[in-house]
Amino acid sequence: MTDSGYFIAFEGGDGAGKSTQVRRVAEALEAAGREVVVTRQPGGTTLGAALRDLVLHGGALTPRAEALVFAADKAQHVEEVILPSLARGAVVVTDRYVDSSVAYQGAGRALGAQEVADLQAWAVGGLMPHLTVVVDVDPATGRQRRGGTDDRMESEADAFHVAVREHFLAMAKGEPHRYLVVDGTASPDEIAERVHARLVDEGVL
Ligand code: TYD
């Protein structure tokens, strides 16, 4: 895996602790001599930052409009950041990707997982991660960890977040070779070790 790019996505509910793990894996990969590009969705491009503000902190959006904004963010992100990085052999680590939309808009907003998956696949031109790490926590723990400041998605009722969590787990169960599920209540060191071990198995580390 030294002469071609590798694409890793971290997924999970709000407050799962993904961002810490994104940082940890990036450090481990860099220490192993890989070029690493860390990014996040929504965001990660100039357009993405504007869309992020709109969708997380703006006014009302209908569920379909919301799904399209998240899809537009990803379309821009793939062409501007992810594809060029993979093409020069970097490891791209993204904090959220298409599965977030399938879980949040498809299952949480009940737009239909398959329809949202199709929309997302179109937006990203079919580019899927080599490995998706789902950092799993129950919504109550996630809420507690986040504290009091909720954005548009975070302020949804617990039932929404339960549906999101169940959908992440169902996707991972269906394709174990493309996913790693880690318990988000384990220590950051333990979680980082599990991710590290999987990347060794995959030949990336
Ligand atoms: P962010 O602040 O990045 O949250 P976190 O630190 O938990 O990743 O907020 C992103 C929010 O947007 C999060 O609630 C998940 C949601 N989201 C979607 O609903 N659909 C998507 O396609 C993406 C990428 C994120």
TrEMBL record:
PROSITE patterns: THYMIDYLATE_KINASE
Family matches, as CDD domains: TMPK
Binding site for ATP: G12, G13, D14, G15, A16, G17, K18, S19
Residues spanning the signal sequence: none
Top-level class of the enzyme under EC nomenclature: transferase
InterPro entries given in the database record: P-loop_NTPase, Thymidylate_kin-like_dom, Thymidylate_kin_CS, Thymidylate_kinase
UniProt family annotation: Belongs to the thymidylate kinase family.
HAMAP family, sorted: Thymidylate_kinase
Protein name: Thymidylate kinase
The organism of origin for this protein: Janibacter terrae
